[in-house]
Design brief:
Mean pLDDT: 96
CATH architecture: 3-Layer(aba) Sandwich
Low-confidence stretches: none
Strand order of the largest sheet: 3-2-1-4
CATH topology: Rossmann fold
CATH class: Alpha Beta
Structural class: alpha/beta
Distance between the termini: 15 Å
Order of helices and strands: EHHEHHEHHEH
Largest sheet: 4 strands, parallel
Length: 130
């Protein structure tokens, strides 16, 4: 099974003391291929910066996800950007880029974001149980 992975999954997987660490780690273990949209990496780095995570550690973590045998880097396309640009709020833009990648690839979405799951369902994208 393959899935498009949301940023919060990487965050919860990275921080062992996070609320959903076990679910994120076991969920990633159960997926054969992780489709990681480019915007996920940008959000992940900005989150690590906000947490004052050392840049050298952040770079290593980023490389770990990018080079993992299950990882597939899934850059967004012009169609993904156009899809996402139709949101009513700037705060939804990144989520809709990720959602568009899942929709385009016809893959389920792995996220812990309840609002994103609702949006996915409205656009015919399934979400993995998390």
């Amino acid at each position: 099974m393959s899935a498009v992975v949301d940023t919060n999954v990487l965050i919860f997987d990275t921080f062992e003391d996070s609320e959903f660490h076990e679910e994120a780690s076991s969920g990633l273990d159960s997926i054969d291929k992780w489709h990681l949209p480019d915007v996920v990496f940008h959000e992940f780095m900005w989150f690590l910066k906000s947490e004052h995570y050392q840049i050298s550690r952040a770079t290593l973590k980023m490389e770990e996800y990018l080079t993992h045998e299950k990882s597939i880097f899934s850059p967004c396309t012009a169609d993904d950007i156009l899809f996402a640009s139709k949101v009513s709020s700037y705060s939804d833009y990144n989520d809709f880029v990720i959602l568009s990648v899942a929709k385009r690839l016809e893959l389920p979405l792995f996220t812990f974001d309840g609002e994103l799951k609702k949006k996915a369902g409205k656009h015919g994208v399934k979400s993995l149980k998390s």
